[in-house]
Specification:
This is Cytochrome P450. Belongs to the cytochrome P450 family. The chain has 506 residues and is α+β, with helices and mostly antiparallel strands. The protein has a single domain (79-504), classed as Cytochrome P450 (Cytochrome p450). It is 58% helix and 9% strand. It has a five-stranded mixed sheet. It has a three-stranded antiparallel sheet with strand order 4-12-9. The chain has a two-stranded antiparallel ribbon with strand order 6-7. The protein is globular. The protein binds protoporphyrin IX containing FE. Protoporphyrin IX containing FE is lined by residues 103, 128, 131, 294, 297-298, 301-302, 305, 364-365, 443-445, 449, 451-454, 456-457.
């Protein structure tokens, strides 16, 4: 190498290193006041990152014990994540607007949404508004269909004859029922019973989660180049189009020919999406992507919650008679209606208590800090721009300040309170329904990004529980012992192998 070129290369390398060192130093200076958990010594960051992959729940618990009500950081393999506990800081995360703490950007990064699902979801998430408004408004009207699908799906998946006991894997059985009943509302009959379609809707979530992990291990510049080769997106759209393409095209054509409220227009999620879609959003691939995404948000969450409910019911069989009495009495009085579900206080309470005690991991509400100045909490803690903040709900869900005997499962904890309050103060004051969120009950999130599907989920969960207690006896296949969760990093799911015994009541 010529001497001037050599000197230029050395100077450039020195400059780049200096800039990098300066940036790292400034970044670390910003981080230093925030305590770190699980990372000490020279290699601590990396060994801590590995430890977090294997023992996230324990490390989050350690942080909460050492720094109660404060922010702390945990090492991921390539970055620090920030976690907050305590009512004040959790509420600040929950209340921050999207432009300051972004949920979309938080998920975009962890799930590589632009590659695994598609940019359309990030550009205009109008399907979330449809869930919040039209879908929620239509739930009572659509309830008979959902109820019918739940009933038929249980008949089909359990396939019981006479009064024999049959043991089935809990999670996968429940997932079949949830996928069918959700899609009865999303796309209607007969597609909601098509095995290949349902497999796609269930599998897509798993593929997105796995492939996002793989893509996240690639160097950033290679992600948009190599990511699409392993992304489930193209296959999802292709298969989704096979099932939904003709139906979507037919609806667009009907609307063109006969106007927006054409005769015979089905009242389902596809129609509601088309009512709100603009321009290029009114195409088969765009609608298919939104159906895939909404199924992603709906199926695994609702199925996990209900599987936990079954584990709670079979490990606490003493609740069955009172649940059954209430469900039978209310259905006899009001029939199978959404109003009837609203009167099932004990079922509502049992579901809420099960959600309080079982979540899908130690952290929730992932947000990316968007403000270039960072995010400043009310206690003065500053989390730098571009960082990821999470909340942990476990401390609040198990705090004796919020719940009496918080470690005990008390299925009627909330219904007892409701009955007491109604006797003393009238109906309006009760604010601990299944769908009510607060910093003490974060199962559906809280405030800015609170789950817009929770009214649908609550309706399905209650209808499934009422259907089971009225029509079946259930028992644990593990002698009343509650099967432990399966934990993968920061994700916890109900034990996937555990079985539940069902017997038809004659
Ligand atoms: C029991 C079942 C469910 C649970 C436990 C659950 C839980 C949650 C939680 C904790 C959040 C908030 C996350 C955050 O703040 O970052 C959320 C958001 C969301 N959920 Fe659910 N969910 C359930 C069912 C559903 C269903 C059935 C749908 C769709 C029909 C749905 C659609 C969504 C969407 C679109 C968001 C994002 C909202 C936003 O970013 O503004 N969820 N859910």
């Amino acid at each position: 190498m010529e001497e001037p070129t050599y000197i230029l290369a050395c100077v450039s390398a020195a400059l780049v290193s200096a800039v990098w060192l300066l940036k790292t130093w400034r970044h670390n200076r910003q981080l230093n006041p925030i305590p770190a958990v699980g990372a000490s010594g020279i290699w601590g960051y990396y060994t801590g990152g590995l430890r977090y992959m294997l023992h996230a729940p324990e490390m989050v618990q350690e942080g909460c014990t050492l720094y109660p009500g404060k922010a702390f950081r945990v090492p991921r393999l390539f970055r620090w994540d920030f976690i907050v506990s305590g009512k004040t800081l959790i509420d600040e995360v929950a209340s921050a607007p999207e432009s300051i703490l972004s949920a979309l950007e938080g998920n975009k990064d962890s799930l590589k949404v632009d590659i695994t699902i598609g940019p359309e979801i990030l550009n205009h998430a109008y399907h979330i508004d449809v869930l919040r408004t039209t879908l929620t408004r239509n739930l009572a009207k659509c309830f008979p269909d959902i109820r019918d699908e739940i009933s038929c799906a249980f008949d089909d998946v359990l396939a019981l004859d006479g009064a024999e006991w049959k043991s089935v894997p809990a999670l996968s059985t429940i997932m079949s029922v949830v996928a069918r009943s959700t899609n009865r509302l999303f796309v209607g009959l007969p597609i909601c019973r098509n095995d290949d379609y349902l497999k796609l809707m269930v599998r897509y979530t798993i593929d997105v989660v796995i492939m996002a992990q793989v893509i996240n291990l690639m160097p950033a510049p290679l992600q948009p180049i190599l990511g699409p080769f392993i992304s489930p997106r193209s296959r999802g759209i292709r298969k989704g189009t096979t099932h939904l393409g003709p139906l979507i095209e037919h609806r667009i054509a009907q609307e063109k020919a006969f106007g927006r409220d054409w005769p015979g227009k089905p009242n389902d999620f596809i129609s509601w999406l088309l009512d709100s879609a603009q321009g290029s959003e009114r195409t088969v691939p765009d609608i298919v992507v939104r159906i895939l995404t909404t199924n992603m948000a709906a199926i695994h969450t609702t199925s996990s919650v209900f599987t936990h409910v079954l584990f709670d019911l079979t490990s606490h069989p003493e609740y069955m008679p009172a649940l059954r009495e209430e469900a039978e009495r209310v259905v006899q009085e009001l029939g199978w209606t959404k109003t009837a579900l609203g009167r099932m206080y004990r079922l509502d309470s049992f579901l809420r208590e099960s959600q309080r005690m079982h979540d899908n991991g130690p952290v929730t509400m992932t947000r990316k800090v968007m403000d270039p100045a960072g995010f400043t909490f009310s206690d003065g803690t500053v989390v730098p721009a571009g960082s990821f903040i999470n909340a942990t709900s476990r401390v609040e869900h198990f705090s004796p300040a919020n719940y009496e005997d918080p470690d005990d499962f008390d299925g009627f904890r909330f219904s007892k309170l409701r009955e007491e309050r109604e006797q003393n103060e009238g109906q309006a004051v009760f604010n601990k329904h299944m769908v009510t969120t607060s910093v003490e009950h974060l199962s559906f999130g809280h405030r800015t990004h609170v789950c817009p599907g929770r009214f649908l989920a609550a309706m399905q969960l209650k209808a499934m529980l009422a259907h089971i207690v009225i029509n079946y006896d259930v028992r644990s296949a593990t002698d009343g012992v509650r099967p432990p969760d399966d934990v993968f990093g920061i994700v916890a799911v109900p034990n996937r192998k555990a079985k539940i015994g069902f017997r038809k009541r004659l």
